[in-house]
Amino acid sequence: MIMRNILLILLSVIVTLVCVKNSQTVDIDLFVEGKIALWKLLLTFFVMGTIFAFLLKGSKKKQHQEHTAIFDESEEDYEGPKSKLSDEDRDFLS
């Protein structure tokens, strides 16, 4: 948890430094024509990338949970041969 906070602080400092160092105006001709400050453009794409990564991470986590749930259900359905261990042996191993 502490390492995550340190990385977030470091990332915010780096983003701030990049935005401060890139204050010039650039011509943009993507969807509209115009001039925009480079730091605004960089910050916009950084935020969009962060949101995209967050959405990808969320979908992978959901898929993993679904896979785990399916695996758990299949274990319950399995009725293989009972173990030949006595109750005393099971207690010792656990």
TrEMBL record:
Instruction: List membrane-spanning regions.
Output: 37-56
Disordered: where is this region? 67-94
Q: Which species is this record about?
A: Sphingobacterium puteale
Q: Where is the composition biased (Basic and acidic residues)?
A: 79-94
Record's keyword terms, sorted: Membrane, Transmembrane, Transmembrane helix
What protein name is recorded for this chain? Answer: DUF1049 domain-containing protein
